[in-house]
Amino acid sequence: MSADATRLPAARRGAARSVRATAVRDRTGRLLRLFLPLGLYLLFTLVPFYWMLLFALRPAGSTSLLPWPVTFEHFDTVWNGMGFRTYFTNSVLIAALTLVSVTFFALMGGYALARFAFRGRRAFMLALLCTQFVPGAMMLIPLFNVFQLLHLIDTRWSLVVAETVFQLPLAMILMSGFVKNVPVELEESAMVDGCGRLRAFLAVVLPLLRPGIVAVGSFAFIGSWNNFLFALMFLNDPELQTVPVGLQTTIGENTVDFGALAAGGVVAAVPVVLVFAFVQKYLVQGMSAGAVKG
Amino acid sequence: MARSLRTAAAALAALGLLTACGSGGSAGDSAKKTVITFWDNNAGPARTPLYQHLIDEFEKAHPGIEVKYVGVTSSEVAEKYNTAIAAGSTPDVGGVTTALLASLTAQKALVPLDERLAGSPLNGKLSAAMLETSKAAAGGKGLYQLPSSGNQDVIWYRADKFEEAGIGVPKTWDELFAAAAKLTDRSKNQYGFTIRGGAGSGFQVLAEAYAYSGLTEVFDANGKSTVDDPKNVELIARIAAQYKQTTPEADVSNAYPQMLAQFQANQVMMVHHNLGSTKDVRSALGDKAAGMLLPAGPNGTATLANPVDGFGVFKNSKHQDAAWTFLEYLDSHGANSYWNENAGQIPANTEAYADDWYVKSGITKRAGDALNSGKLVQPPVYLPQYSKITKTEAEPNFQKVLLGRMSPADFAKSVADALTKAQADYRAKNG
After folding, report:
1. Is the pLDDT of residue B27 over 50?
2. Would you call A144 and B83 a contact, using CB atoms and an 8 Å cutoff?
3. Using one digit for the tens of pLDDT, what is the confidence trace for A77-136?
4. Is the peptide bond before A69 cis (omega within 30 degrees of 0)?
5. In which band, very low, low, confident or very high, does the pLDDT at A27 lie, cut at 50, 70 and 90?
6. Which of B45, B68, B69 sits opposite A257 (nearest CB)?
7. Rounded CA separation A158/B81 (Å)
């Protein structure tokens, strides 16, 4: 304690102590109210991931709660032995093309829904929403027949087209919301300055839609990456199969290779985690866009 | 300039993606070959490598035929077949268990194999009991499945713990319940038995009931189900009474993986499953575990037939001769013996019964002997509603029995009534 402090009057020393005590109480309260529940929630969320990593990295038969000694034998098994190298490449190709396709058509459709007043627009949007009530399984056979006529069965295109068709309605609705949040005056100003509608869209609106594009594109990528049903039904050639179907083959009726299943799970999760890690900033912007009108 | 390069690179990358998205593959040599597609109905880490090996061997022996293997997991196979049938896009050959057969034959998706078998070197060399089960599963209207392997219910038990406790292998249900009580020490989280309360419980409890009652038919002469016979009800009640006494509390929702995990972790001493778990049990416990057949009841014993695995040739196949050639190979002595030895199942090819591995296989041979004894009770898998009754309806009701919310008699009656009605409907439609 400094000499100045000892010379403070007793009342002021008491007030200072009270302020410090209040600060400590606030910190403790904040810790208990905010960080403790959040920490518990984080633990709850991360335990399954830890469990997956544990099974993927520890030797078969080990009951250790720590992945030690570390082994990569399960990754070798799934990547080289079970064909995940091929499945991964296929999934990346299909998800990337779906992303491009969904984003492109959602931009076009979303812009039209947001900017053009046409007869039946509300009914059209309602119809788009209603398509979300139709489960994929119900559409399997009609899609199968159409793809067969188009010779798309057993090609990766079948998944790209099916995924695009299924994801587009929601993506268009989302995108129209993002477009609505871009002031129409900006486009009008660009057009007054000599831009055509397309140029005004590309030069003025598109850059402002970046959070929306990232949000819609990410959902398209993840949705396509995780799709199991269409891949199972439309693809037969093992050389064309995707990661979710490959994962399923690690589970036999009576035999489960937990190490391979966990390693396959890690392989399947990595792109999703990477996508969210890189785009989370845009996602948050995209999600909150238009939340507050000013 | 830089922008042009970037544009060109992006265009090339897009072109690469587009090219890569084609189905790929060139005709090449395969254009000269007959290509048949084979869907495995239970792909997984245990079976897929076995088929891949056999396909390699088959293609070496038959250079004119190429087999494209498609692995489908057992949980998805029904949906995949049904979609393919509806879309007219079935494979040439498919793995078909007797459980799937009713649905496939009802949709007229398979071709009968009786004539092909009659003219084949395999004639007379396949298990008569499995052929009978195959025909029964198709409603007795012919052979639509070429059986390849059989499975039977067994009880795996901890031979080492039985020996430590001085208990002999139970031959009757009374002895089994007594052994379970003796081996239970709840303070140590150790239980003598485990009940399947989750997925698959319906068939399992019926297998236990018929083994106890000794009834040899699921329907009496009037088409009434025997599931609610007092002896069956008695065993169901005795099984339910074991719950939480000699079995873990979690059994109410446990299915095969959890039961086996408990068995491997020293928590339960006996687990009722079937030969499908042979590999898991052997690799985890070695000689510490052994298998026994379901014990007998007061009236002797009866054995409910397990699904028989096999293959079907699909009607839409343009290469049915090549498909049959492939099936003949898979059911030949060497191939069938190899597959069943490694999968831990009972071979359909009776020549394999003299093979060293089978003679020394212990529980597999005993289960095979039981299967081939001619005393199998045929479950009515030909009924379209069979799966719904024994799974969707029976399983949650059996959980109610375990939890004391439904009486064993009511449970058995609900299953029996549903089966009786389904049988009457089937007879009305099929004569």
Report:
1. no
2. yes
3. 999 988 899 999 999 999 999 999 999 999 999 999 999 988 988 899 899 888 888 888
4. yes
5. confident
6. B45
7. 19
- For residue B331, give the nearest of B312, B306, B305 by alpha carbon: B312
In this prediction, residue A286 carries a pLDDT of 59
Q: How far apart are CA B285 and CA B258, in angstroms?
A: 16
pLDDT-derived band at A24 (thresholds 50, 70, 90) equals confident
- Please judge whether A249 and B42 are an interchain contact, meaning their C-beta atoms are less than 8 angstroms apart: no
Chain B residues inside the 8 Å CB shell of A256: 45, 257
Task: Annotate B339-354 with DSSP letters as a single string.
Answer: HHHHHT-EESBGGGGG
Q: Do B279 and A255 touch (CB under 8 A)?
A: yes
- Between A64 and B350, the more confident residue is B350
pLDDT of residue B20: 47
pLDDT at B204 over 90: yes
Contact: A236, B20; criterion CB under 8 Å: no
Residue B333's Cβ-count burial label (10 Å; 0-12, 13-18, 19+) is: middle
Residues in chain B: 431
Instruction: Assess contact for B215 and B232: CB atoms under 8 A.
Output: yes
User: Order of strands, edge to edge, in the sheet holding B270-274?
Assistant: B270-274, B153-158, B289-293
Q: What pLDDT does residue A284 have?
A: 67
Between CA B326 and CA B130 the distance in angstroms is: 20
Three-class DSSP category at B319: coil
**CA distances (Å), A214 to each of A116, A169, A175, B33, B77, in order?**
24, 17, 11, 48, 37
Query: ipTM score here?
Result: 0.73
CA distance B166 to B159: 10
A101 touching B (Cβ < 8 Å) = no
Residue pair A159/A97 in contact (Cβ under 8 Å)? The answer is no
pTM for this prediction: 0.80
